[in-house]
Write a sequence for this structure.
């Protein structure tokens, strides 16, 4: 029997969009893995440094909506301020609340490689679930 890694993410194709699947031992870990996948889509193999710290506090009616709000916030920061998240500290992730700190830096075309243009995080086939002591999730992004 193949052992499943404790956490990670992978991409999957979806018509003209791109999907990200992830798993982790905690819900916070799942949210972080999906965020890492999103960042890799937007900023390809680039060395990133945690030069700036931003607090984050989100609420939503359920885990799927919270994941959607989380990824939308990260995309908003990148789209409007060119802020690229690098490290995530999420000490509080419940079914309806996310609180933590995100560290990152400003995207610089001379140092960073622009990846795919992510237009939106969609609700289509959005999943967050816990099974057998692991958290699983997926999201489809409009590229």
């Amino acid at each position: 029997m193949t052992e499943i890694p404790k956490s990670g993410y992978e991409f999957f194709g979806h018509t003209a969009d791109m999907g990200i699947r992830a798993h982790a031992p905690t819900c916070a870990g799942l949210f972080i893995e999906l965020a890492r996948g999103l960042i890799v889509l937007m900023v390809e193999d680039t060395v990133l440094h945690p030069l700036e710290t931003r607090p984050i506090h989100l609420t939503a009616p359920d885990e799927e909506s919270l994941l959607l709000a989380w990824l939308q916030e990260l995309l908003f920061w990148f789209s409007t301020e060119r802020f690229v998240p690098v490290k995530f500290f999420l000490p509080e992730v419940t079914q309806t609340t996310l609180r933590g700190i995100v560290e990152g830096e400003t995207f610089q075309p001379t140092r960073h490689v622009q990846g795919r243009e992510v237009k939106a995080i969609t609700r289509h086939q959005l999943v967050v679930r816990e099974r057998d002591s692991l958290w699983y999730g997926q999201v489809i992004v409009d590229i």
Q: What stands out?
A: The chain is about 25% helix and 40% strand. The radius of gyration is 14 Å. The domain at 8-142 is CATH 3.55.10.10 (Archease, Possible Chaperone; Chain: A; domain 1). The mean pLDDT is 91.
